[in-house]
User: What shape does this take?
Amino acid sequence: MAIQYNEKTQIFSLHTKNSTYQMKVDNHRYLLHLYYGRKLDADMDYMLTYFDRGFSGNPYDADMDRTYSLDVLPQEFPVLGTGDYRSTAFKIREENGCYGCDLRYMGYDILDRKYTLTGLPSAYSDQAQTLAIRLKDERTGVEVTLFYGVLEDCDVITRSVKVSNAGK
Assistant: This one.
């Protein structure tokens, strides 16, 4: 199987014939990027480091945990407004002019086919799989689905994002 999910460690592993891509859902339901490189069979979550950061922005539910900071953790889909001051992949502006989004993991699906991009060209294979990871900002209702297409025999991993406004 090209896509594997470990319920215990909450690690997603995507494998092609020569590469591995890994992500992890952490205790606060953020999706963290672990690894992309040559194919391996190990979990790479040991790469995540938690040191006392002094003052560094963190989510409310991290409370006073000074070792947890989204400014240093490798988020898979970083957004504006969570304490990560690096370049973001996504930001929204609300009607009142406020910026900010707090996307948390909601669930996933593994499909035995490659996702499609309506109206756009795309790579396909008879042996492709898709991982769809759902994230949601509870306050605004914005939902994001991250699609990963794994064409194992072609040694290709594709990625696409769908954004939906399920709020007001």
